[in-house]
Amino acid sequence: MFKKIISKCDDSVKEILINQYRSHEDIMRIVNVFYENQLQLGDEINQNNEKQHYVTVENDKGLKIFDSEKAIYWIDSTKDENQNFVYEQGESGSTSLFNWLEINLTIKALQLIELGYNNLTTKLEKQPKVAVISFYGLHVKKLRKTISNLKFKNIKVEVSTVDDYQGRETEIVIVNIVRHPQRQLNANKEFIKKYERLNVAFSRAKNMLIIIGAVNFFANIDVEIPTVINPNVTTTIKAYYEILRIINNYGLIWYAKDLLS
Fold this sequence. Notes:
The protein is α/β, with parallel strands linked by helices. The protein has a single domain (2-260), classed as Rossmann fold. It has 9 helices and 12 strands. It has helices spanning 2-8, 25-31, 47-50, 100-118, 137-147, 195-202, 215-218, 239-250, 256-260, and strands at residues 19-20, 40-41, 57-58, 64-66, 72-76, 129-134, 156-161, 170-176, 205-213, 223-226, 234-237, 252-255. Helix 2 links the parallel strand 1 and strand 2 (40-41). The relative contact order is 0.21.
């Protein structure tokens, strides 16, 4: 309804709210994929400093997996730590999907974040919150079960579907994209091409955004995005590829072997 009303209005009565105060600038760069790069920092002087996550932590090989100077990350779930391809799975009686490698990578990411906060010489006044979100209910169910067996003292963790997390925000968000079909050409991609879901998933984080997904599958997916001025007019872009490009320039991209080896 709102899209219909906006599209019928004359441009003279439309105004775009471009100043955002929610997130770090680099997270905003990702969200700007859906807004034609029109979003700007609401406070150019202080906002990035106020949106710090403070986590710097290395893996067993000395690689700095999370860096307090970087807010955006992509962890590639195409292959496991032994370089074997890992594909999405389903269950009998369910149309939903899950990805066990992404669950394992999420657990390791949470453990590293927990360690990073534990190593801070000056403890934070407020316990950071980490939201783990996914498009698929079955994956969320398995995530919740796995995470419920873990204990964290430095972070508060919650798990949700992307749809249920709409309208909310938190300091750190880990997005599990799940999809990695064995037969990619024939796979139904409509669910992961819905820009509304992508926009929600990647815009919930304030200080740190971690995306876990199969790069070789998502880099070539076209997403139809409405223009800001008229939602009835759309452009088609490789949104995931653009997000990967941004993270490569401003953040860090890792592989399963970097976290799980």
